[in-house]
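Lay summary. Proteins are chains of building blocks that fold into shapes, and those shapes determine what they do. In this project we predict the shape from the chain. Here is one chain we studied, written as its sequence of building blocks.
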Amino acid sequence: MNSIERIPPPVRQLRLVVETEDYEAAVTFYRDVLGLVEREVIQGEGDARITILEAGRATLELSNPAQVRMIDQVEADGQPSAKLRVAFEVEDSQTATRDLVAAGGTLIAEPRETPWRSLNSRLTAPDGLQITLFQELDPAAEPSGPE
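And here is the predicted shape, written in a compact code that computers can read:
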């Protein structure tokens, strides 16, 4: 059997940087309510602050306009999504959606089953970032559908 030498990928991490006016509310929303794990907190001069939250496996999903329109139809009854939308896989999209709305998120669409067998909801976070929450309905399957 041939041994194939593994070459590390050129990109090691995807980091999404979100500027937020209400830093404390954003930390509460993403860390305390959504459950992202705090990895690092840095404070700088002039009240500069950053919290780096671990969000599990990162992927970059590139979709053409036709695909985005189809996803918008399935997830949000055709309401157009933002140019940038962040999707989080959660254990229970019903509960996570309810909790994030209670924490200041604005509901765009209630959780609904998609053709790719996930339960998706859409919200706007207090910082203005549009997010999708998705729960895989076939837990043994590797995520493969659009979010």
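What the prediction tells us: The chain has a mean pLDDT of 92.
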